[in-house]
Amino acid sequence: MNPAAQIQTMSTEPHPAAPPPVTYPPPMAIRSLRKGVNVAYRQGLAVTGMGLLVLSGPVSIAAPFLPVGLPMAVVGAVLLGRNAVWARRWMESVLARHPRVERLAPDWLMTQVFGRKKRAFTD
């Protein structure tokens, strides 16, 4: 037998004791699941913020002597602005059109909602 043919036949024959190849699940499955949970959690926080904003009006009218409505509105605006892109864009456009609103807002609120300090306006 030719030595080159012997090498070729030896390399093509499967080894009887070789274990089957191990397949692992792709690592992206957990990451994509976690991303989906994070999106659902943020949407839940945005809906909660919207609910607090809607409920703050009737609560402030129903309980005028208890200052509950304003803190509910502030917390709702913070939740909505931090977790909904469309709400943040809308709030930024309102602040751009009406600079007096931004002047009245406290600095900590601007930091919580938008992640930035108040703009300096010159009059």
Measured by DSSP, the beta-strand proportion falls in under 5%
Instruction: List low-pLDDT spans.
Output: none
Series of H and E elements: HHHHHH
Distance between the termini: 99 Å
| Major sheet details | none
What is the C-alpha radius of gyration, as a whole number of Å? 30 Å
Mean model confidence by pLDDT: 80
**Class based on secondary structure composition and strand pairing:** mainly alpha
Shape: elongated
- How large is the count of helical segments? 6
Helix content: over 70%
* Topology, number of strands: 0
List keywords for this structure.
123 residues; mainly alpha
Provide the fold topology.
Elements: H1 3-12, H2 28-62, H3 69-83, H4 85-97, H5 99-104, H6 107-114
Helix pairs in contact: 2-3, 3-4, 3-6
